[in-house]
Design goal:
Blueprint (H helix, E strand, L loop, with lengths): L1 E4 L2 E10 L2 E4 H7 L4 H11 L3 E4 L6 H16 L8 E5 L10 H9 L6 E5 L5 H15 L4 E8 L19 E9 L6 E7 L7 E2 L17 E2 L5 E2 L5 E2 L1 H23 L8 E4 L4 H10 L11 H5 L6 H14 L4 E9 L3 E9 L3 E2 L3 E2 L3
Parallel strand pairs: 2-17, 2-18, 5-6, 5-7, 14-15
Antiparallel strand pairs: 1-9, 2-8, 3-4, 7-8, 9-16, 10-13, 11-12, 15-16
Helix pairs in contact: 1-2, 6-7
Length: 356
C-alpha cells in the first residue's frame, strides 16, 4: 500500500531504554562459549551491549516515561492530545489495551481516542502512518504515537539465536497537524505466508497460556526454547529482508522524489550490523548516511529502534534543521513499512534509561 499525507509534522521524539546493561562477551563466556567465536560474532553482527528492562518494568512503563519527558520538554499539557496509538507485542494485559492504560495514566481527555497496533519491528512506521492519517483527515490536531517492547522477556537464555539480540525500550513520538509541512510518504506491505519465521507459539487464543506444558526443546543447532519463547528462523528472515526492504525503500523514495544522494539519511530498523550494512549498500546509501550504532549499544529494540536511531545518530541536526529522512522497519508478520519525508526542526528529549 502506498500513501502520501500532507499538512502534518513530526513535532517531538523521546526514547526510554531498559536500565539493566547486559554485555554480550561476558554473557557468552559465562555460558561456556569460545571467546574467539564470540569475538567473530560481535564483529560481524555488531553485538556489544544491550539494555533490558528491570524486573517489573513493562513497555507501558517505558513509553510513559518517554512521553512524560517529551511533554515536559515541549511544555505541553497531556489534555492537548487528541489520540494515542500504542504499538507493541508485549502489552501489560490481553485486555485492556496499552493505549487505554496510558490514556488513564496521563489523564487524557475523554474525547481522546486510544488504540493499539500489534506489530513489531515495522510498527513505528505503521503507527506513524496512522497518526499522520488522524491528523490529516481524522480531525486530530495532535497525536501521541508510542512504540515499544520488552522482547527480552520472551527469549530463552539457552537460545543463542535470539537471546543475545534483544534490548527493551519505549518511544514517544508527537505528530501534529499543520498547514505548511511537506507530505509524508509511506509504503506498507506484508507477506503473511512467511509469518511462522518469527513466532511465539503459546500465549494467544490458539494456544493459550497453560494449554500445554512448557517442555523445553533443543533444535539442531543446540538452541533451547519452549512454546512461550520467541522462535526465529534467521535465514528466512534475512532472505525476506533482502527481498523486500530495498524495493520498499526504492518505492517510497520515488514517491518523495528522493535519491540516495539527495536524502540526508537512511534510518533502518536496528536488527544487526551485518544486515544494516548489506541493506544500505543495496539501497545505494553510504555508511555515513546510515546510523548503525544503536544495535551495538542497546540491542534490537523492536518497534522503538527507528526512533532510537533517529535520536542517537541525528539528534544534533534534527533539533536545528529539516532533514530528508528515509526510514524502513521490517520483521514479524512478515511485514515492512517504509517512510520518506522531511523531519525537523523538532524537540528531542535526551535518551535515558528507566528507572534512571
Amino acid at each position: 500500500m502506498h500513501s502520501s499525507l500532507s499538512n502534518i509534522r513530526l513535532a517531538g521524539l523521546a526514547v526510554s531504554t531498559g536500565s539493566v546493561v547486559r554485555d554480550f562477551m561476558a554473557d557468552g563466556l559465562a555460558r561456556g562459549i569460545d571467546r574467539g567465536q564470540l569475538e567473530r560474532i560481535a564483529k560481524t553482527v555488531g553485538l556489544r551491549e544491550r539494555r533490558i528492562a528491570a524486573p517489573g518494568v513493562t513497555a507501558l512503563d517505558l513509553c510513559e516515561d518517554a512521553t512524560r519527558r517529551l511533554l515536559a520538554e515541549m511544555a505541553l499539557d497531556a489534555t492537548s492530545i487528541d489520540a494515542v496509538i500504542f504499538v507493541t507485542q508485549t502489552p501489560d494485559y490481553s485486555q485492556p489495551n496499552n493505549a487505554s492504560l496510558l490514556h488513564g495514566r496521563l489523564g487524557l481527555s475523554k474525547s481522546a481516542a486510544a488504540f493499539d497496533l500489534a506489530l513489531g519491528c515495522s510498527g513505528w512506521v505503521y503507527g506513524l502512518q496512522q497518526a499522520a492519517l488522524l491528523c490529516a483527515h481524522g480531525g486530530a490536531a495532535r497525536v501521541l504515537l508510542c512504540a515499544g517492547d520488552t522482547l527480552s522477556r520472551l527469549t530463552h537464555p539457552g537460545d543463542r539465536s535470539t537471546d543475545p539480540l534483544f534490548g527493551d525500550a519505549g518511544s514517544a513520538t508527537l505528530v501534529e497537524r499543520t498547514g505548511h509541512a511537506a507530505p509524508f510518504h509511506f509504503v506498507l506491505g506484508a507477506d503473511g505466508q512467511g509469518s511462522s519465521a518469527i513466532m511465539v507459539p503459546q500465549g494467544g487464543a490458539r494456544q493459550a497460556p497453560g494449554a500445554a506444558p512448557l517442555a523445553e526443546i533443543t533444535d539442531s543447532e543446540g538452541n533451547v526454547r519452549h512454546a512461550a519463547n520467541l522462535a526465529m528462523n534467521g535465514a528466512e528472515v534475512f532472505n525476506f529482508t533482502l527481498r523486500e526492504v530495498p524495493s520498499a525503500v526504492g518505492a517510497v523514495m520515488r514517491l518523495a522524489g528522493y535519491t540516495a544522494e539527495t536524502a540526508d539519511a537512511l534510518v533502518l530498523h536496528q536488527a544487526n550490523r551485518f544486515m544494516l550494512s548489506t541493506l544500505a549498500k543495496k539501497c545505494g546509501f553510504t555508511a555515513e548516511k546510515t546510523p548503525m550504532a544503536v544495535v551495538e549499544r542497546f540491542g534490537n529494540q523492536s518497534s522503538a529502534s527507528i526512533p532510537c536511531a533517529l535520536i542517537d545518530g541525528l539528534v544534533d541536526r534534527l533539533e536545528r534543521e529539516p532533514l530528508k529522512i528515509v526510514a524502513c522497519g521490517f520483521g514479524v508478520g512478515l511485514s515492512w513499512g517504509a517512510f520518506a519525508g522531511v523531519i525537523g526542526p523538532l524537540t528531542v528529549a535526551p535518551l535515558r534509561s528507566f528507572p534512571a
